[in-house]
Amino acid sequence: MEQSGMKDLIEYIAVSLVEAPDQVSVEKTKRDQTTVYQLRVSPEDRGRVIGRQGRTARSIRTVLSAAASRTGKRVVLEIVE
Fold first, then answer.
1. Under 8 Å CB-to-CB from 81, ≥6 apart: which residues?
2. Domains in the chain, ordered, with CATH?
């Protein structure tokens, strides 16, 4: 999956989870050999994206890792305030 597809994938998952989809944004940055995606949602929706004990966030990261492994790239998802 190409890198812009990763951003679209993160946005798609986040928008389907939150109450305020218009406040979802994803920024892409590079750090060494890793692509970092920063996901921002409204403060009220942060719990929905993280999930109980981080389960939802961990699941999103697992999907991203699986998609990135096909390209040989390393990706990281950060949920920022």
1. 40, 43, 46
2. 3-80 (3.30.300.20)
